Task: inverse folding
């Protein structure tokens, strides 16, 4: 098996996908949260049909399912490759203009539509490893969308490779493209019975060579506080302002720890993401994160203590806190299926890269899918500077991801 003379399609696919606005919307109650995600879904189904994958379909929830049938007599476990089609609501995805910076030589990259957006190796150390590569950025006003359209394009090119090289034996491969991953709903409507896979791989990771088999445990917390509204002209000794209670809660959170901006590695955090209300009623929303469920509960107990202690300072004020599960550390599942991770490491090694096993300070669709019954680590897609106008990716890294996906299909057949 060789890629030496293969004409990769991943770049052209990626450029085509990035200009389609697929931002998800956390305030929407529909699935998908935005109808525009369906534009990319329909294009992918069309391209899959053109490849000869006749069962490709877009379901009522916006997910794309497809099958590459086996071409071996061996009994090979069905594996799934998964990426998400939506982009983050943190930064505009409207009017994306991808730019290829050929033969990167270590210089600062100034994005033309906003010259204050400068990609420097000092701020993006991974650029030091990209000398000679072709770097893709947006123009400065939007994110690029490599998270996760790079993964989508890489899976599509890997399918193209396998279809055009029928001599390469592989088992049955299922494809899943999800919506709304960026707002935590990517696996909400995935039908594992319909998917019919035994193991899976999300293609949604960072630097080339990375394999991520551990994520945060994640909960959401919502605090609702109630004040006592009184006409301001007669408020002395009577009014209790819900906004001030909410502000005091935020002020009591540790300033030097337990926040995203003060933690790294395996440290968890309490992260306020929304505050709204008025003098009568205010709502605070938090993300609670830790690599262990014990750590998660410790953070929640602290937040609950902050609420109770704050309310003591405001007689007449009331409040309640509600926690809900978002996802759990997929390592707890993946450790029961070591072959899934071992073959991914070997597939990366076969490309000539040195595999690096990493933990994610976040989550993927694989977190949810693993607990739903589909053990699913995360393979690199080559993404960098996610959710920002400085997002970038290397064409050569995307090609390595294509090779990794093909290698995985081959390894599962060979080991069966």
Result:
């Amino acid at each position: 098996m060789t890629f030496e003379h293969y004409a990769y399609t991943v770049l052209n696919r990626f450029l085509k996908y990035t200009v389609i606005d697929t931002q998800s919307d956390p305030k929407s109650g529909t699935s998908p949260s935005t109808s525009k995600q369906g534009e990319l879904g329909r294009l992918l189904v069309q391209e899959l049909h053109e490849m000869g994958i006749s069962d490709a379909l877009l379901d009522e929830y916006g997910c794309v399912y497809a099958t590459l049938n086996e071409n071996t007599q061996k009994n090979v476990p069905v594996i799934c490759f998964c990426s998400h089609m939506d982009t983050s609501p943190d930064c505009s995805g409207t009017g994306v203009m991808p730019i290829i910076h050929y033969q990167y030589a270590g210089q600062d990259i100034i994005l033309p539509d906003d010259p204050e957006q400068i990609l420097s190796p000092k701020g993006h150390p991974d650029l030091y490893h990209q000398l000679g590569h072709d770097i893709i950025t947006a123009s400065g006003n939007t994110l690029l969308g490599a998270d996760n359209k790079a993964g989508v394009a890489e899976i599509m090119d890997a399918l193209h490779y396998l279809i055009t090289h029928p001599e390469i034996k592989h088992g049955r491969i299922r494809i899943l493209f999800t919506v709304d991953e960026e707002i935590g709903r990517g696996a909400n409507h995935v039908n594992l019975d319909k998917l019919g896979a035994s193991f899976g791989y999300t293609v949604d990771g960072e630097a080339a060579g990375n394999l991520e088999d551990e994520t945060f445990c994640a909960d959401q917390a919502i605090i609702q506080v109630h004040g006592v509204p009184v006409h301001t002209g007669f408020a002395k000794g009577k009014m209790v302002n819900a906004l001030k209670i909410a502000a005091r809660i935020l002020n009591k959170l540790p300033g030097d720890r337990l926040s995203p901006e003060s933690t790294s590695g395996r440290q968890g955090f309490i992260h306020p993401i929304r505050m709204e209300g008025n003098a009568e009623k205010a709502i605070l929303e938090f993300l609670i994160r830790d690599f262990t469920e014990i750590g998660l509960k410790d953070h929640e107990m602290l937040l609950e203590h902050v609420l109770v202690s704050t309310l003591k300072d405001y007689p007449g004020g009331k409040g309640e806190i509600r926690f809900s599960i978002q996802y759990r550390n997929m390592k707890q599942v993946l450790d029961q299926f070591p072959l899934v991770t071992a073959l991914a490491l070997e597939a990366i090694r076969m490309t000539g890269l040195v595999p690096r096993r990493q933990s994610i300070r976040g989550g993927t669709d694989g977190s949810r899918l693993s607990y739903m019954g589909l053990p699913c680590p995360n393979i690199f897609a080559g993404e960098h500077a996610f959710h920002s106008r400085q997002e970038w990716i290397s064409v050569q890294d995307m090609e390595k991801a294509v090779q990794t996906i093909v290698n995985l299909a081959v390894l599962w057949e060979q080991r069966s």
Notes: The radius of gyration is 23 Å.
